[in-house]
Amino acid sequence: FGCYIHDNGTFGIDSIGTASTIIMSFSISEANGNHGVEMASAAPSRISNCTIDGNTGAAVDGINYTTPNTGTVLLNNILSNNGRYGANATDGDSIYADYNDYFGNGTAARNNIPVGPNDAALDPQFTDRAGGNFAIGTNLKALGFPGAFPAGLSTGYLDIGAVQRQEPAGGLAGSYIALP
Q1: Residue 132 — left, alpha, or beta (φ > 0 → left; ψ -120 to 50 → alpha)?
Q2: Cα separation of 58 and 114, whole Å?
């Protein structure tokens, strides 16, 4: 949770050989020499609200699932500018994927990963990608799950990716009203 994984010569995160559940949230994996996240797990895993960007090489994916299990979740992530796919799986039938943004990946957005009805393909408009500031632009603002809850009685506003936007404060900041 809340990790910044970058500039590794090989994988950002590598779970090959483990049978553990992997949970990764509000983390950034960028500029690694191999897959941003390598998932080879017999247990269900969850990657949510992460930014996985710029992991380079002709055969390098943002996320590479080799044996995903039922219950694996890919939700509210930015998968951008990776060498091959944003997300790749040998068999993605067991993966629930939605509310992800796939942008600028070398080969395609995804391979064997289901298309979520709320997925996007928008430039994240990072504030300063080269400098490590992955705050998003307004085009991804509030596009993440939870969105509208059943029956439409409540609506959540979560941004896609690891970094949530902070809106400027409004109102009367620095002002006062003289009372009688």
Answers
A1: left
A2: 22
